C-alpha cells in the first residue's frame, strides 16, 4: 500500500543553510504522527513545506496520489490539507457558532443560503462540531473571550468543518494548562482515523498519550522513528538530546 503522504528526498535551503536535508517521511491514512526534535531540527519547516508555505529545492511530495510539487497554498488546501499554526487564527469578533458556520460555508452564495433546510443543516453541523471539540457551552460567546485552550479547539473545529483530510498542527499544547492538554489529547484521539494528523510537539507526555508513530528529526533529517519506548531507548536519539534534559523533557 502506498503511503497517504510521502516526502521523498526533500531538501529545503535558505541562503545555503539546509533546513531540510534529504528528508524522507511516509505517513499512513488515518495515522496520528508526532514530529519531535531539538529546536532547529526542521519540524516546522516540514509542515511549511507540506502545506505549500515554502517550496523544496529538491525532492518530491505526494498526498493521496496527488503530486504537490509547485502547487500554490490554496490548491494544496483544496486537496484536503489543513494547517493549524502556533498562534490560533479565528475570527475574534464573531461568536464560536459563527466561526464554525463560516468554516462550514465552503461555497458561500446568496442562492445556496436560500435553499430550504440550508440553515437547519448548518445549525446541525455547527452543533456536531461544537460537541466534538468541547465547546457546546460556548457557542454564543465571542471567540475573543475564550481561554487559550478553547481558542485552539475552535480552530481545530474549523479545520474539521473544512473537511481537511490531513491536519498539520504546530505545538498545539503550548501555553495550555494541564487540564487543557489532557482534553486536547482526548480530542486528537477522537480525530485520528477519521483524519490523518501530523503534530509537532515538545511535550513528551502529550506525545506519548497520542502518538501512533513518533518521528525524530535532527539537522533537517529523519534521525529515528518508532513507538515512544523505541524512541526513548534509541542511542542516536539520546545522543542528539544530550545537554537538553533528555528526550523525556524535549
Structural class of the helices, strands and pairings? alpha/beta
| Mean of pLDDT | 88
The order of strands across the largest sheet is 6-7-8-3-9-10
Number of helices: 10
Radius of gyration: 19 Å
Approximate helicity band? 25-40%
Strand content: 15-25%
Instruction: Give a short account of the largest sheet.
Output: 6 strands, mixed
Any chance you could write out the topology, listing elements then pairs?
Blueprint: E1 5-14, E2 17-27, E3 32-36, H1 43-50, E4 58-63, E5 66-67, H2 73-78, E6 81-84, H3 96-104, H4 110-113, H5 118-132, H6 148-161, E7 166-170, H7 178-191, E8 196-200, H8 204-210, E9 213-218, E10 221-226, H9 228-233, H10 235-240
Parallel strand pairs: 3-8, 3-9, 6-7, 7-8
Antiparallel strand pairs: 1-2, 1-4, 4-5, 9-10
Helix pairs in contact: 3-5, 3-6, 5-6
What would you say about this model in short?
This protein has 250 residues and is an alpha/beta fold. Helix content is 36%, strand content 24%. A six-stranded mixed sheet has the order 6-7-8-3-9-10, with helices on both faces.
Descriptive notes:
It is a single chain. The protein is α/β, with parallel strands linked by helices and 250 residues long. The protein has helices at 43-50, 73-78, 96-104, 110-113, 118-132, 148-161, 178-191, 204-210, 228-233, 235-240, and strands at 5-14, 17-27, 32-36, 58-63, 66-67, 81-84, 166-170, 196-200, 213-218, 221-226. The strands form two sheets. A six-stranded mixed sheet has the order 6-7-8-3-9-10, with helices on both faces. A hairpin with a 2-residue loop joins strand 9 and strand 10 (221-226). Helix 5 crosses helix 6. The radius of gyration is 19 Å and the shape is globular.
